[in-house]
Amino acid sequence: RGSLQEQGRLLELSVMLQIAATELEKDKSRRESEKQNYLSEHCPPLHLPGSMSEVQELCKQLHAKIDAAEEEKYDMEVRVQKSTKELEDMNQKLFDLRGKFKRPPLRRVRMSADAMLKALLGSKHKVCMDLRANLKQVKKEDTEKERDLRDVGDWRKNIEEKSGMEGRKKMFETES
């Protein structure tokens, strides 16, 4: 059985590897076609003119495009540097603000509700929060179960009566 399971796993792995290889080939061909499409759109083929004046004109156009690209690059770099500087300044301000105020270590304080209200409200505190004083007294009625439990009595006496051979003899006599 072990060898059949291993053969099944190996067969699964080989099928998965074949599928993965075909997927890689498809992905490679797709990337190559995307590359060709991008190059055809953004880089038209270069036509070199025959006369010297046309070549000079082409060079001037290429230099103008290069200058425009360099200006754009420079503007982007300046924006990035400016935003980086702003971020550093804000971080420094935040650090300075945090440093000015030293946070004290907090301790647990046991305080009654009355003391807490007095501390918060000061002399305005008139309400008494003694919750135990406000509780109602409930009279408990005896139920039949509680009476039965009281009538049974102390469990230790029952154990002492049933201990020993005489107690076991009584148990068998009462069961039958």
Automatic annotation (TrEMBL):
Q: Which UniProt keywords apply?
A: Acetylation, Actin-binding, Coiled coil, Muscle protein
Coiled-coil region(s): 21-100
Q: Which InterPro entries match?
A: Troponin, Troponin_I, Troponin_sf
User: Which superkingdom does the taxonomy of this entry point to?
Assistant: Eukaryota
Extract one GO BP annotation from the record.
Answer: cardiac muscle contraction
GO terms, molecular function: actin binding; troponin T binding
One Pfam family assigned to this protein is: Troponin
Q: Does the keyword Coiled coil apply?
A: yes
Any one GO CC term of this protein is:
nucleus
- Similarity annotation: Belongs to the troponin I family.
Please give the function described in this protein's UniProt entry: Troponin I is the inhibitory subunit of troponin, the thin filament regulatory complex which confers calcium-sensitivity to striated muscle actomyosin ATPase activity.
How is the quaternary structure described? Binds to actin and tropomyosin. Interacts with TRIM63. Interacts with STK4/MST1.
UniProt-recorded name of the protein: Troponin I, cardiac muscle
- Which gene specifies this protein's sequence? TNNI2
